[in-house]
């Protein structure tokens, strides 16, 4: 074999080796980018869950609620202010608002349901605190019963006193009064509570929700 043939063979071998190395490098870069993309997606989802006070947010695969002040809404995205931080949430294709939600709710406190699988906003509604009037009433039933939200000031065997924007309100407990504070620890005093009140102004139930605190 002459020298030209030897040089040609060496050149071809070098080119093939270089091509193989480049191919491996590109494949490794692609795999690394895919892995980074998956990790980034996972981190985004985890971070979104960390903003939630909903107990369901701690359970993998469970849809959960986010509470925050609506800063901005576009056709594709919601921006909430949660603990002073702006959080952007993509809307799902099936996104909807609660019936009778006012058109302009920027600056209002809202409850957004998050699809845990896709990490998108499924629905939006005003929170009880945003709906409440000066007496703390945020919902009225056709039969005359109503719901109140306010800060628990005092509770006795017979009465419940809450503070709302118009002042302190005291309600007598009904005979079938029930209290649900399973989702919170410690004393309920000075915490925000929800009261179910009968049309005769007797309290039927008291509930403490982590998302209201």
Automatic annotation (TrEMBL):
Protein name (Swiss-Prot/TrEMBL): Lipoprotein
Keywords recorded for this protein, A-Z: Plasmid, Signal
Region (Disordered): 25-65, 161-196
Organism annotation: Priestia megaterium
Lineage, opening ranks: Bacteria, Bacillati, Bacillota, Bacilli, Bacillales
Signal peptide interval: 1-23
Positions with biased composition (Low complexity): 25-40
